[in-house]
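ZP: hey, is the iron/sulfur cluster complex queued? I don't see it on the tracker
AM: it wasn't, my bad. submitting now with these inputs:
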Amino acid sequence: MYGYVHSIETMGTVDGPGLRYVVFTAGCPLRCKYCHNPDTWQLENGKKMTSDEILADFEKYRPYLRNGGITLSGGEPLLQIDFVTDLFTKAQQKDIHTCLDTSGVTFSKEAARLDKFKKLAEVTNLVMLDIKHINAEVYKELTGGKLTETLEFLDFLAKETDCDIWIRHVIVKGYTYKTEYLYQLGYCIGQYKNIKAIDVLPYHDMAVNKYEELGLDYPLKDMPAMTKEQAVKARTVIEAGIRDRVLGNQARY
Ligand code: SF4
C-alpha cells in the first residue's frame, strides 16, 4: 500500500525512544497557529511511497537505530490511517518498534472508523499524543480543530489498547501558558495510568521563513519564543494537576 510522504529523517532524536527513522507524512486537517511544518499541509504535495519501499530504506539505517525504531509524524499520519496500519504491521513483523506522533484528529467512535483505530493500535507500540490545548474553545481558535477528538482518542488508547502513551504539549504565551489551563491538562491526564511520559515543549518561531517562502501569513507574528525554564515551570503546574487527580482531590480550577 502506498501513502503520501513529505520527507524522511533517518536519525531523529526527539521523536520517540532511541534514535528514530522518522517518516513525515503529507496532509494535515489542522492549522495550528504555531505550526512549524506548513509545507506538510497538502496531501497531494507528498511523494507516493509504498510501505515496502520505506521499510527497505529503513533497513539501510537499522544498524544505527538499534534502540529506536520507526516513527510516523507529519502533517497528520491519521489522515492516512490505512497506510500507517499497513506500514506498522509490516514493521512489527520485522521487530521494529513503532511510534505514532499525532494530535488524535479524525478519531471517531463511529463503528467503521473505530475498527480502523483498533487495528492501528494493535500494531503501535507508542503513541505520542499532542494535546494542543485543554480548553475546547481555545483549542478551536488555536488549531481550527475539535478537542473532543483528541480527548476521546486518549480515552480509547488508555482504556482499550496496550499502547504506551506519551503526552506532548507546546507552551505558547497567551494560549497554553496559563496556570489554570496547565493545571486542567494535568488533572485530565491524571486519570490515566498508562501515560509513560510528558514532554512540555517551548514554542519557537523558527518557521517564520517557511511561511514567507510559501507566501503565507505567519499567525503568531511578534509572539515571543518560550524558554526551557518556562517549560520546566509549566511542567510543575501540570504535575500538580496530575497529583490532585491521582489523590482524588477536587480540581482547583
Ligand atoms: S497538527 Fe502538526 S502539522 Fe498539523 S497544523 Fe498542527 S502543528 Fe502543523
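AM: back. The chain has eight helices and eight strands.
ZP: great, adding it to the tracker
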